[in-house]
Amino acid sequence: MRAASDIGHRVEAAAPEGFDATLTMHDHAPIHRGSVTVLQVNVGKLCNQACHHCHVDAGPKRTEVMTPATAERVLALVDASPEITTVDLTGGAPELNPSFRMLVHGLHAMGRRVQVRCNLTVLFVPGMSDLPEFYRDHGVHLICSLPCYTSDNVDRQRGRGVFSESIRALQRLNEFGYGRPGSDLRLDLVYNPLGAFLPPAQAELEARYTTELQEQFGIVFNDLIVITNMPIKRFAEMLDRQGALASYMGLLVNHFNPRTVGQVMCRALLSVGWDGRLYDCDFNQMLDLPLDGPATIWDIASCREFAGRRITTAAHCFGCTAGAGSSCGGSLQ
């Protein structure tokens, strides 16, 4: 396998125009952050799965886990930053972090909206059977990975047996009120392509998911979030092995959509790594790209210090701005 740094250089080389130069060609200024309203916290790379597309390179053997002291500092920072309305907890499987429940409880007590990026199968890890009840009692907004509504496609991307466990988990969440009409308990699903292509239109795919999951399994959910695979870490390595890295980058560059630039998620988001380091977004975190400003959560008194600062960009940013655009909340158009 090629070294990660080598693959990163070749990702940049496959987009010779450069992202900032492309912005200039389309009369866009460099991207700057507005007010930080979303704090995305990656609590570690430990996960009970090891998906082919994972830009975090997470898995069962990873040891990077946020400590209780760092989690406590995250809570203090949110408390000192009233402009933060949403905290998005991600991983790995965030539920496997020993401080996960403490974080959710503390954020809920502050009245902040808590989102959790859940892989669904974590509900069947020993000691996790009460998660649906915990989610419900703390009003957690669940954003759950389900890259297809058929077993073959899901198991091919995420591992044998993952689809059947994911269906069981969704049915259990429905039993607790998640995703049901009239319920405040939001259950969103996440689709990402199975290969080196752009996702289809979000609204059309959501309609298909709704029909298939309801008719086959009696499952209901709120929204489908469509995300473009980013040429980072494990997905970039897979493309490299297949000889498809350059063509995929060409696809992203050729489908750059200037209308998405004003809506990219980094304009309102700040990313916290498992070790307390700060980044412009989760993707920049995985590439260890420094931001413009203080480096860690211990170096700032409030997230307000990042308003107006320039965002660090690179070739992977074409993934957020290709086609209909992509963000942690789905398509941008």
Q: What would your notes on this structure say?
A:
The protein is of the alpha/beta class. The protein has a single domain (4-321), classed as Aldolase class I (TIM Barrel, Alpha-Beta Barrel). The chain has helices at residues 4-13, 19-25, 68-79, 100-109, 131-137, 151-158, 162-175, 202-217, 233-242, 245-254, 282-286, 318-321; strands at residues 38-42, 86-90, 113-118, 141-145, 187-191, 224-226, 269-272, 278-279. The chain has an 8-stranded mixed beta sheet with strand order 6-5-4-3-2-1-7-8. Strand 1 (38-42), helix 3 (68-79) and strand 2 (86-90) form a beta-alpha-beta unit. Helix 1 crosses helix 9 (233-242) and helix 3 runs parallel beside helix 4. The longest helix is centred in the middle third of the chain and has 16 residues, at 202-217. It is globular.
Summarize the structure.
The protein is 34% helix and 11% strand.
SSE layout and pairing:
Layout: H1 4-13, H2 19-25, E1 38-42, H3 68-79, E2 86-90, H4 100-109, E3 113-118, H5 131-137, E4 141-145, H6 151-158, H7 162-175, E5 187-191, H8 202-217, E6 224-226, H9 233-242, H10 245-254, E7 269-272, E8 278-279, H11 282-286, H12 318-321
Parallel strand pairs: 1-2, 1-7, 2-3, 3-4, 4-5, 5-6
Antiparallel strand pairs: 7-8
